[in-house]
Amino acid sequence: MQDRIASLAPRTLRSMIAAFVGIEIMVVVMVYVVVLLLFPDPWAVMHLCIISGLVISAPVVGLLLAILRNQSALQDKLAEIATTDMLTGLPNRRAFLSAVAPDGHFARAGILVLADADHFKRINDTYGHDVGDACLRAIAEALRKTLSDVDIAARYGGEEFVMFYDGADATRLDQLARTICAPIRIADAGLPEGLSLTLSAGALITDAGQPTISAYRDADRALYRAKSEGRARMVAASALQVCEPVPAQA
What we know:
Layout: H1 2-38, H2 42-83, H3 93-100, E1 110-117, H4 120-127, H5 129-144, E2 152-157, E3 160-166, H6 173-180, E4 184-185, E5 196-197, E6 199-206, H7 212-228, E7 233-235, E8 240-242
Parallel strand pairs: 6-7
Antiparallel strand pairs: 1-3, 1-6, 2-3, 4-5, 7-8
Helix pairs in contact: 1-2, 4-5
């Protein structure tokens, strides 16, 4: 839908510019004809036409500049909508894939992590979807704190998130596991004090040029293993990184 809106905006702008230019030409021609009838001197006609053209053009040019500024702002807004998850403020799946694997292969080596909120359905059923939304925002904020300037985290869909740690290797896995899977406190009015939740995660060390399809499949299998072995932990390709257990109240 956003792509369709974005494609309509330039066409609308071109139509408006064409209309303004057409109106200006028509007015100048009319002025020329009137002046020619009133003043037979061709030099006087030329001077008056130039002056009238400038007078007419000034507001039109100003209006066109304002339209161009609004067009640029509209395109920026549409780009933000198309690439951002509006609930969490994180990039969405489309933006994530464009950043790390624009051609379907990872552009650089690093660590791919798929993370899923533990017992999220229980929280939604117990406290409602507003609290569930607060949990997703809290998860997003916690994940942002794990990123460097070259890393990226995104909401992959539902309660699932995806991260790519650019250039990271196996020495960082344990740190990431304990940081990502640590309990996340949910601060929201009306909630029981101490409510928190954890993430289960699957991690994969990727190479530059590696296809994303196989990488996501392997990371997803690791995530499934983390869920089946007790949650609140990260499973990597070669080791099991255990974090704190999920709190009973979550």
